[in-house]
Structure formats: structure tokens, C-alpha cells
Design brief:
Rossmann fold; seven-stranded mixed β-sheet; alpha/beta; 171 residues
């Protein structure tokens, strides 16, 4: 099955000049969604993760069922101020400014094998920041995974662990 057939491209979203790859049509198609999770599980299983960390917000949609399929735990990487309880923050540079992500203080145990998951990797900045944050908490980041990779933005070059993507776009 060609998963690209189930991903909708929306021009000029969220602003003019951006081509947005929308996975809502993939999620709505039961067979395509099941195939996506099964293919991701096949790619991630060799890393033997204890925990999958999903990046806000569409990364949650991918990581949670994948964690269930693998028998792994699931935790969230969120933007600052969105998680209850004690959190640990990491601020990282963007092209123009900074952004901050955080995890709950007890989300990652030292030595846990972690795979970072998102729906899409573009420049790789947020995923690289999540990897750094988990490593600072003592987790062993053993891999990363996403549904869509935008090759032309070269985000893979910023990811210091094996990265599995299900589909890629060259422009």
C-alpha cells in the first residue's frame, strides 16, 4: 500500500507558500492507518524501546498506538506550560528566536531505552531538542520515527540516532 495516497497536501497552510502534509485523511482510513502503525512497529521494534515519547501534538496520535502495539510505555513532549505537575524544560534555537519544550519530571527513568516519535520531520529542530531533553534526563535515546520526512529540509542531518520514516517528499 502506498501511504502517500492517504496523505492530503494542503497549499498555503498555515501561511502562504507552505505546503502542509495532512495526516487526518490517513488517520480516517482504517486499513491505511493500521498499515502505518504496523510498518512503524516493524521499524522501531529492533530498538527494543521501553518508552515512546510523542511530540506535541500529532506525534501523540502516532506514538500512543505505536507504544500499545510494541508493549512500550508512552510519554508526552509538550510546549511549555501544558503538562501538569513538576516538569523539566529545554529551550532551543529556531531560525528566528527560541522555543521551549518540556516533559514531566518523572516521565523518563535513567537508563530507559527511548524512541522519539512525531508525525513529520522537517528541519529536525524539535526532534533534536526532544532527544537532547530525554538524554539530559538520563534516558538512552535509541531511535526516532515519523510518518513523513521532508527530505529537502535535511532534518535527518540533525538527528543523532537512527531515524525511520514511512514516506518522504523531495519538494
Amino acid at each position: 500500500m502506498d501511504l502517500k495516497e492517504h496523505i492530503r497536501a494542503i497549499p498555503d497552510f498555515p501561511k502562504p507558500g507552505i505546503l502542509f502534509y495532512d495526516i487526518s485523511t490517513l488517520l480516517a482510513h482504517p486499513h491505511a492507518w493500521r498499515m502505518t502503525v504496523e510498518r512503524l512497529a516493524e521499524a522501531v521494534r529492533p530498538h527494543r524501546p521501553d518508552l515512546l515519547m510523542g511530540i506535541e501534538s500529532r506525534g501523540f496520535l502516532v506514538a500512543a498506538p505505536l507504544a500499545y502495539a510494541l508493549g512500550s510505555g508512552f510519554a508526552m513532549v509538550r510546549k511549555q506550560g501544558k503538562l501538569p505537575g513538576n516538569t523539566v524544560r529545554f529551550t532551543y534555537d529556531l531560525e528566528y528566536g527560541t522555543d521551549t519544550i518540556e516533559v514531566q519530571e518523572d516521565a523518563v527513568a535513567p537508563g530507559q531505552r527511548v524512541v522519539i516519535v512525531d508525525d513529520l520531520i522537517a528541519t529536525g529542530g524539535t526532534m533534536a531538542a526532544a532527544i537532547d531533553l530525554v538524554a539530559r534526563r538520563g534516558g538512552e535515546v535509541v531511535g526516532a520515527a515519523c510518518i513523513i520526512e521532508l527530505n529537502f529540509l535535511n532534518g535527518r542531518s540533525r538527528i543523532p540516532v537512527p531515524l525511520a520514516s514511512m514516506v518522504s517528499y523531495d519538494s
